[in-house]
Design brief:
By secondary structure, the chain is mostly beta strands. The protein contains two helices and six strands. The strands form two sheets. The protein has a four-stranded mixed beta sheet, with no helix packed on it. The chain has a two-stranded antiparallel sheet with strand order 1-2. Strand 4 and strand 5 form a beta hairpin. The longest helix is centred in the middle third of the chain and has 7 residues. It is elongated and about 90 Å long. The termini are far apart.
Length: 133
């Protein structure tokens, strides 16, 4: 792997010159270029583009999704509380596609319920008794 550095302005320190921040500023702005990708074991990704870098680092499709619109298509979600979108019966969204879940404030004969879509309608999920210790 070839790494090169260059300084835009030349400066030579004479023997006995104190190396201070002000003196170092006279060296100019360094630039560094890397001829080949840096291996993961050396702190890089071993990749020449973002897609290959994400793959090398094991970043799945969630790594490129917007934080306000993700699609989890595998794996497990755990250790967090899931909050369903809440609606009144009069404002529920389309039941298509199937498999959606919502909280309906008045969807079970006026009582709150969780509902699951079958693709054409919202189906009540009975909530049961209140939890207790």
């Amino acid at each position: 792997m070839a790494i090169s550095a260059s300084v835009t302005r030349g400066f030579t320190f004479a023997t006995g010159v104190e190396v201070t921040a002000a003196a170092l500023n006279q060296l100019g702005t360094p630039s560094v270029s890397v001829a080949t990708p840096i291996a993961v074991s050396n702190g890089g990704t071993g990749s020449a583009n973002a897609s290959d870098a994400r793959s090398a680092l094991g970043v799945g499709t969630l790594g490129t999704q917007a934080s306000n619109a993700i699609a989890v298509t595998g794996g497990t979600i755990s250790g967090t509380i899931m909050t369903l979108p809440s609606y009144a019966v009069s404002g529920v969204p389309s039941a298509s596609p199937a498999g959606q879940m919502i909280y309906v404030t008045d969807g079970n004969s006026g009582a709150a319920t969780v509902a699951v879509s079958d693709g054409s309608a919202w189906k009540v999920v009975a909530l049961g008794a209140t939890i207790s210790t």
